[in-house]
Amino acid sequence: LDERAMEETRRRLDRLTKPPGSLGRLEELAVQLAGIAGTSELAVVRKAVVVMAGDHGVCEEGVSAFPQEVTGQMVLNFLNGGAAINVLAGQAGADVVCVDMGIKAQLKDERLISRNVRAGTANIVRGPAMTREEAVRAVEAGIGLAEELAAQGVGVLATGEMGIGNTTPSSAMLAALCGLEPEDVVGRGTGVDEAGLVRKREAVASAIRTNRPDSEDPLDVIAKVGGLEIAGLAGLVIGAAANRLPVVIDGFISTVAALVACRLVPAAQAYLIPSHLSEERGHRLALGQLGLDPLLHLGMRLGEGTGAALCFPLLDAAVQVLNKMATFDSAGVSES
Amino acid sequence: LDERAMEETRRRLDRLTKPPGSLGRLEELAVQLAGIAGTSELAVVRKAVVVMAGDHGVCEEGVSAFPQEVTGQMVLNFLNGGAAINVLAGQAGADVVCVDMGIKAQLKDERLISRNVRAGTANIVRGPAMTREEAVRAVEAGIGLAEELAAQGVGVLATGEMGIGNTTPSSAMLAALCGLEPEDVVGRGTGVDEAGLVRKREAVASAIRTNRPDSEDPLDVIAKVGGLEIAGLAGLVIGAAANRLPVVIDGFISTVAALVACRLVPAAQAYLIPSHLSEERGHRLALGQLGLDPLLHLGMRLGEGTGAALCFPLLDAAVQVLNKMATFDSAGVSES
Q1: Which residues are named in the active-site annotation (chains A, B) (predicted)?
Q2: Strand residues in chain A grouped as ranges (E)
Q3: Nearest Cβ partner for A82 among B65, B87, B326
C-alpha cells in the first residue's frame, strides 16, 4: 500500500474536529482505502457484490438442511432480485453480480455470468473435489472477473456465495490449511440438527483422511477438499488486490476463500476489509488466521455477501468523514 | 410492545428465502420495530439524532483533555454542519437536532433549540451538580422534545451529546446506580493521559463520597452527580417510549442516560436499540445493565451520536428485508 497516502490521510484525520483517533475503525478504514487508492483524495465509489455459486458432491452425505437444487433456485432468485443480498446491496447502492462457477443445474439466463468449470464438485468424502487443473481454472476465472469489474469502473468489491453444502468444504479447507480439528471448524451452516452436525464433522474428518491435502499447497487444498465458488472467490480476492481494489469479505466461506487467496498471494491481505462476525463456528478462527477483526456483530449466518453489503455504508462514512468534516482551524474549535 | 405484530413479523420473516433466523439481529430488529409500531407493515421512517449539550463544573478538576469552551464551539460546529455527527447523520439521511440543555456560554443561534436549565453544572467534587428541581426540569425538557419530534413526523430517534468533561459525571452516575467502583467505570474520555485518568477516578470517588447519591432514586443521582445533557437524554428516552418511537442509544454517556431512564420508567427498555461498543471503559458494563448487545464494534469514542447514526442503515435494512424479499413460494425455492 501507498505509505505516503496513508500518512497524509492520518494527518488530515487528526486536523478534523474530533479527538485524534476517536472514530476508531472508521479512521483506519479511511487510511487503508487511501493506501489502496494511492491518494488521500478519496471518493465514494461504485460497489459490487460478486455472488459466486457452485454445487457440492458432499451433499450426498446429508450435510445440509436444504436440498441441493436450492443452489440453482437461489441463483434465479438473485437474478430476479428477491434474495436478501439483492435487498441489502440495493440499500447500499451496490450492484449484485451473479457468477455460475459450477452449478449442477444448467441455468440459461443472460444476466448470469457463466464461468462454470464443472457441474459441481465430486464428493470429497470419496475423493478429490476436482482436478488441480480445474482448481486453477476456477481461481483464474475469479481473477479475470475482478479485472473486468475494475475495468468497468467498480471501485470496491464484496464477496458473496451460494452453494448448498458449502460450509462443509470450507471447514475442510480451513482444517487442512491450519491444521485444525473438525470439531473446531464445523458448524451448523444453514441450520442442521445435532445428527447433521455429527455427519458434517465426520465428512470433514473423512475428506481430509481420504484426500490428504497438502497444507503448504493451497491449490492442492482447493482441488482435494474445496469448492468451485470458493476457488472463484479466492481468485476474486487476488484479482482485487492486483487491480488495487479493496475487497470486503463476507462470512465463513468467504473468509476461507480469502485465506486461500492470501496463502497463494500474501500481498492480497492488505486489500481485505472484514465485515461481520458470523454465527458459523469456524468463522472467528478463520478471521484470526487473517488478522481480521469484524466490524458488525449481527449474529448472521446467511452468506450471499449479506454481511459484506451491510458494511458498504461504513466505507462511505469513512470517506465522507475525511472529505466533509471541518478542521479545528476552519471551525474555530480549541484543540486539546 | 405489540406481541401480535411481533409474532406476525416472525412468521413473515420465516417465509422469506433464507434459513429461518439466518439474518440474526437484523430479524430481531424488524420484530422489535414491529412491536413498537404495533404492526408488521413497517416503513422506512424519518430519523433524527438529538444532540444535547451541557457544561460540567467538574472540569475544574482537570478531568478532560479539552478546555471547557469547546462545548459551545462544537455546538456551533454542529449547527454549521462541520462535525462528525453532521457527516454521519447526513449519510444516513437523518436530521441533527441540537439542544442547549445547559451550556455555559450564551449561544444565540436560531437553529439551536434552547432548553438551558442552568449555565452548566456545579463541580460535583464539591457538592451537588444541580438541584433536584433542575434535574426534573432537564428530564422533562427531554420528554417534551421527544413528543415534539414525534408530532413532526420523526419515526426514530438517536441520542447524542456534547459536554466537555461529561464522561466523569456519567461514570459517577453509573457507579452510584449500580454500586460499582470508580476503577471499573472511569475511562480516558476524549483522551486524558495517565495522570488525567487518576484525577478522573479521584473526582468520581470524591463526588460520590461528598454527595452520597441514593442509588434507589435516579433523580437524586442526576441531581447529585449528573449532567444537564445526560438528564435531558434520559428524558428523551422516556419520551420516545411514551410516543412509541424506537430510540438508538449511542455510546457511554448515552447508555448511562438510558439506564437512568429505565430506572425511572422500566417500560422504556423495550424501545432501546443499541448501537456501537465504545472504547470508553464503562460502556460494556452500562450496556450489560440494560441487557443490550452492541451491533457495531468500531472502537469509537467520540459521542455526538456518531455510533447511533451509523446504525440507522441497519434499521432501514431490517425493514427492507421484511418488505422486499421474496418468499419461498413466490420464488419457487425448496424449503429445508
Answers
A1: 304
A2: 46-54, 95-102, 113-114, 154-162, 247-249, 272-274
A3: B326
pLDDT confidence bin for B182, thresholds 50/70/90: very high
Name the grid cell of B29. Answer: 430488529
pLDDT in tens, B33-75: 999 999 999 999 999 999 999 999 999 999 999 999 999 999 9
Backbone phi and psi for residue A39, each to the nearest 5 degrees, phi listed first: -160, 150
Task: State the first-to-last Cα distance of chain B, in angstroms, to the nearest integer.
Answer: 31
Q: Angle B131-B134-B139 (CA atoms, 0-180°, nearest 5)?
A: 130
CA–CA separation, B91 vs B239, rounded Å?
Answer: 26
Count of C-beta atoms within a 10 Å radius of residue B183: 12
Strands A113-114 and A46-54, bridge-based pairing: unpaired
CB atoms within 10 A of CB A235: 29
Sole residue written with cell 439466463: A109
Sign of CA dihedral A318, A322, A323, A329: positive
The chain B residue lying nearest A65, using CA atoms, is B336
Residue with grid cell 467502583, as numbered in its chain? B181
Average pLDDT of the residues in B97-108: 97
Closest CA to B134 of B227, B265, B58, B262: B227
Query: Which candidate, A328, A173, A191, places its Cα nearest to that of A258?
Result: A173
State the pTM of this model.
0.97
d(CA B66, CA B46): 34
SS3 content of chain B, % helix, strand, coil (to 5): 55, 10, 35
10 Å Cβ neighbour count for A229? 36
Best mutation site among A32, A87, A279, A284 for testing chain B: the one with the most B CBs within 10 Å?
A: A87
- Please state, in angstroms and rounded to a whole number, the distance separating the CA atoms of residues B268 and B288: 16
* pLDDT over 90 (residue B336): no
Provide the residue count of chain B.
336
Q: Tell me the torsion sign for CA atoms B34, B276, A314, A289.
A: negative
Please indicate if any CB of chain A lies within 8 Å of the CB of B79: no
What is the tens place of the pLDDT at every residue in B230-255? 999 999 999 999 999 999 999 999 99
Residue A300 and residue B332: Cβ atoms within 8 Å? no
Q: Angle at CA B144, nearest 5°, toward B139 and B147?
A: 135
Q: Could you please report the per-residue DSSP string of B11-41?
A: HHHHHBSS-TTTTTHHHHHHHHHHHHHTSS-
Residues on chain A touching B300 (C-beta within 8 angstroms): 22-26
Residues of B in contact with A321 (CB under 8 A): 84, 87-88
Contacts of A91 in chain B (CB under 8 A): 313, 316-317, 320
Which of A324, A328, A329, A330 has the highest number of chain B CBs within 10 A, making it the mutation to test binding with B? Answer: A324
For the stretch B119-148, what's the b/e string if a residue is b when 16 or more beta carbons lie within 10 angstroms of its beta carbon? Answer: ebbbbbbeebbbeeebbbbbbbbbbebbbe
As a whole number, mean pLDDT of residues A305-326 equals 98
Known catalytic membership, residue A304: yes
